[in-house]
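Researcher: Re-running this chain for the archive, since the previous output was lost when a drive failed. Same request as before.
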Amino acid sequence: MAGSRISGFHRLGMAERLEVVAGFAGLTAAQVAVLAETGALPAELADRLVENAIGVMPVPIGIASNLKVDGVDRLVPMATEESSVVAAVCNAARLVYDAGGFVTSASGPLMIAQIQLTGVSDPQHSRLEILERREEIAGICDGCDPVLVRHGGGFRELEVRVLETRGGPMVITHIVVDTRDAMGANAVNTMAERLAPSIEGWCGGKVYLRILSNLADRRLVRARAVWPADALGGAEVVDGIVAASHFAEADPYRAATHNKGVMNGISACVLATGNDTRAIEAGAHAYAARSGQYRSLSRFERTAEGDLAGSLELPLAVGLVGGATKVHPTARVCVAILGVTTAVEMARVFCAVGLAQTFAALRALSTVGIQKGHMALHAQNLAMMAGAVGEEVDRVADAMVATGEVRVDVAERVLGELRGG
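Model: Regenerated structure tokens:
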């Protein structure tokens, strides 16, 4: 078998790379055909979006219905392979629709870039010297992206702090930039790199890292909603959800799974619109740990009237311009379905989805348990794994759910009986 060191692999075309990989891995003709089919994403574009492309990984796109966000009805595309995610959002949104839906707010599209200065003997003095040059720094930064400035964005704030580390003190400069409708990584990284030599010249020392922070805590988005107790099944259900929320606030083991529920919804929206799921998830989880203990991102409380009030706050650095959002054909269609005109508006809808998602998870956990609804949908996947097609899928899935045995071996047995085997 050939080795993995392949000279000039990146210079090959997609079909040629696929041929090399097929030989290395012993792929069948059918397996090669799966990878060769790129669907709505043209092979040429796929080859531009990722190094050494050989195919694409299609992910189902579902539509979350019933959402009313700030008085506007939305249909929200969600790209996910987890069957229960979209259904959960639809149900959660339906239960709060007549009560007004979701209300959201945002702090604005501000991103931070960090410049790490090391090896200075007088870090406090250097800190003040950098702060004194605020206007000069603003000019350097805005000079990097006049188009952004013309659209109302650009440099906004300067922060400098002395950070004590195992390697000695470092002077960390933060430039805060309004990136408007862009996620902003390229813009703020360019500014940080352009500014770094000036900081070395002013203070001495050596600049190493100059890059954005994905803890975008100047780009916070908030959503809230009140679910009527009667719509949920009464006071006991409200109490159960509130108790589950208290558990997640106090215990990082529970908080990790709680926040995974939040991100089930948000990450699916981010992926569908071609935004950066890794950046969003990193920022959310870092924000959850900002107190020194990892905690839940959402909160649920009982109102004075006995209803359930839910709220969610987290950083959401998403964009409408640049990157895959503008060039990926499916992402562009998803943005059109979403019907938003600014990045902030998009983030607010995504935050509402995150709140709906975590509500649905807590309601299931605190009542019938997560498996009842999840396994009903998972049963369909198992039926297909067993070889069911068409109407057989529902019949096999229904039979498994009815017996409470949702396993692939049971699916195979039921399918065999159905086919008279």
